[in-house]
Amino acid sequence: MSVTEDDGARSSDAPQRLYNRLAALRADRGMSRQALADAVAVNYQTIGYLERGDYNPSLELAFRLSEVFGVPIEAIFSRRPMRPMSQELYGGQPPAEAVG
Amino acid sequence: MNGVLTPTRVVAGILFAFMAISLALPGSASTYGVLAYLAFVGITMVVVSGIRKEPGSWLGRRSVRRCLVALIVAVCIGLIATPPPTYNSTSGESSTGPLLALFMFMVLFNIALGRATQRVVSAPETVVDEREEALRNRACRLAYVILLVTVGGVLLVADLAGEQSRAWLGATVSWSGWLVFGELLFILPTMVLAFIEPDRVTPEPGEIRGGSTARQRAAAALLVVSFGIPVVLSVALAVLPPTVSTSSNGSIVMTTSASGVTPVTDCRHFQADVIVGHGIQADIPVNAMACWNGTRAAESYGMGKSDCNQGDSVAANVRTLACTSATLPDGTLTFRYRAFVSSSLLPFLGRTVTVEVIIDKNGHVLAFP
Amino acid sequence: MISSSRRSLDLAGDRRRRRALVTIILIATGVLASALPPSLGGYGIIPVLLLTTLDLVLIRSTRGLAFARGKSLDERERSLRDHAYRVGFRWLGLAVAILLIVTIVSTIIAAWLFPMVGAPSFPSDLNIGIAGRGLFAVLEILCMVPTMVIAWNQPDGAEQPDQAHDAPRQRGKALRLMWLTLPLVLVLWVLDVTVVPVQAASRNPNFSSSTRQTGAKCQDFVSGRVVGGPFGATVGLDATVCWNGTDASLVNDPSLRICGGNSNDDFASVTETCTTHTDSGGTLQYVVQARVSPLPFSIGSRDVTLTLVVSRNGIVITQP
């Protein structure tokens, strides 16, 4: 968790983990990690680290990802656990319980 | 500095120039050979350093990388703890210890570590992405702090503590300490990066670009040759017979008396170099004079029990087995030096060499290399 | 408002002045590591304090970024700091190599210019380890290179004077406390020279003197005492004694011109007196008496005595 104190101390030594939908967006478009990496000019390992949450992208990389997927940055990354996209898009109604 | 002349390359160049000068100064064929080999190794390192190949699933694991780092640390400690090469002028024995073997292990582990980290630390900025850039910057910062604490701390404490620590510092700084300092200077950031980087992502099918480039194949060939040369030369030392480079047993008339022989009629001067091995080699010189008067032969110099010496050696150990000098009842003078010569790399593999000089009471040379 | 004295020390917004300061520090470090002059005459602590002061000014101009902990930095500062360390690591090897070349070349020049004094910054006949000025130069380079990189590369106007004190309270406090380093260095040095026990120093096996002839009836004696480690002084004894069964005599320096050879007085002044006396039995007594003073007027001084006694038959009765 990043901490902002009155004396102006900035974030803690370890950056806060960002949640993301990269794997889902990539699967939706049938893109491999390598293809996405080539599209945003990074190593495919970096895509893997992003998806695992082991690395937080720079603003520039986030914008490039946003352009590739055609969705805003906040649809890709979040500081809080992300709800399924279907809930985001269709009002967040929980799925109906199975009958029988 | 421009992109070609980086500080690292300048330092490597200075180190190589220093080694070249110190090896070229003696001017012998063996030191030129070592110089040529080191130049070949330098070219190999340049070719290898530019290759960024995927480490594979095994080397990509952090636990494996950390083991590699531990091995390199162990080799560095071994180098610091190993005493410098010794030569005992009384017994004629010399030993370089496990230095060569440790050095080769260090090079091997460095290459493996470079492959495991895809040589991110030394890659140009145009080929690394932001994550790799941030990771290597962080690794360099941690490596710098480690270097400051270890090198600076060791220097300060050893220099302040007492006479024994200062003596240790003097011996280390003059030899293996520089080797380890060079290792830390060039490899420590890679070691830190290998230690801190999480497990690499398992590549999906199609993510690893198959096949190898011409540069990769050339690098593999150069590596095989670089490592193979010392091994082949070590085996050659044990297998091939010794060669005698110079030999003379001229006859000289002396007017002054030699030890134990009066009156003196003739003397002979013996000079030879028995060379065991090629490249990795030991030189056993003979430089002696013997005189005779028809009753007995006697040594003028160079054939006594303290004259079993060795000359220049390159990465070879010489262990004296026997050094005898005797005059037989019939007046024949015998001098025999038997030694076991082995390579520092493969100390268990060597050969026994016997150098004999035998001259009878009438000046006939019965044995000479 | 910032006072004018603070403003003159504040180089945060002036890259040219910061670069000039980096250059001065590097040159001063090189001069300190060199063997010229061969002796600092006991005033070695002055260049050390001056260099430390310049370091502190440089650290202040970069807001101590190189030494700041991650918790007090934002992502931009962390990135800048880490990048400086990477650049610094690459330049560190070159800096050490240049320092070594300067030391070797200056030692050769010093030996040529001052043959009797020698080159104390390079290992001498005595095993005294690394000379204090050389050790300080190495530590200076190790500690300050990242700060120099930041100071050199930071653009003009990065921090305006009126924003200079917006640094987090923790860092601001640390930056103010760092000026205590100067008196701390001074106190540690005085304690080192006046309190730390005197240590023995024997012949350096890597640099044994071979110019003097020693036959079956002569022997070299090289020994010394180290007062205050590398940041103090060394008192040396260097004598060749020969004997002939009638008496023993000093042969390498019969007029005592090189009294106490191998002495080193970079950080504390050394006043030596050598006396030689052969008694009626032919026994030679050679005594080196020295006073090591870190401060003027012999304040905190310590007396060291080295005694060598050799009989007419070559029996060493006392040796330091």
Structure report:
The complex is a heterotrimer of chains A (about 100), B (about 375) and C (about 325). Chain A is mostly helical. Chain A has helices at about 20-30, 35-40, 45-50, 60-70, 75, 85-90, and strands at about 20, 75-80. Chain A has one domain (about 20-90): Orthogonal Bundle (434 Repressor (Amino-terminal Domain)), CATH 1.10.260.40. Chain A is about 45% helix and about 5% strand. Chain A has a two-stranded antiparallel ribbon with strand order 1-2. The longest helix of chain A has 11 residues, at about 60-70. Chain A starts with 18 loop residues before the first strand and ends in an 11-residue tail after the last helix. Residues about 1-10 of chain A have low confidence and may be disordered. Chain B is an alpha+beta fold. Chain B has two domains: about 5-235, no CATH class; about 240-365, no CATH class. In chain B, strands 3, 4, 5, 6 and 7 form a five-stranded antiparallel beta sheet that branches. Chain C has a four-stranded antiparallel beta sheet. In chain C, α4 (about 75-115) packs antiparallel against α5. The termini of chain C are far apart. The chains are: A mainly alpha (about 100), B alpha+beta (about 375), C alpha+beta (about 325). Chains B and C meet through α1, α6, α7 and α8 of B and α4, α5 and β1 of C.
Relevant terms:
A: mainly alpha, 434 Repressor (Amino-terminal Domain), two-stranded antiparallel sheet, disordered N terminus, B: 369 residues, alpha+beta, 2 domains, four-stranded antiparallel β-sheet, elongated
